[in-house]
Amino acid sequence: MDSSTNKLYHEDDFDSRQHLEDYVSDNPDRISHEDSLIFPIENLIKTFTEGALLQDTEHRHHLSIHLQPDSHIKGDVLIDISLGSMIYHLFAASDFFNHIIVLKSRDSCIIELKRWVDSRTGAFDWSHVTKRHVDTEEDSEQLQDKEGKVRSALQHVVKCNLEKEDMMDPIILPPADCIISAIFLDVISRDQNDYMRYLRKFSRLLKPGGHFILIGALEMTYYTVGKHKYHAFSYDEDFARKALVGEGFIIDRCNVKKRTDVNDHVDYKSMIFIAAHKEK
Question: Which pTM does this prediction carry?
Answer without folding.
Answer: 0.89
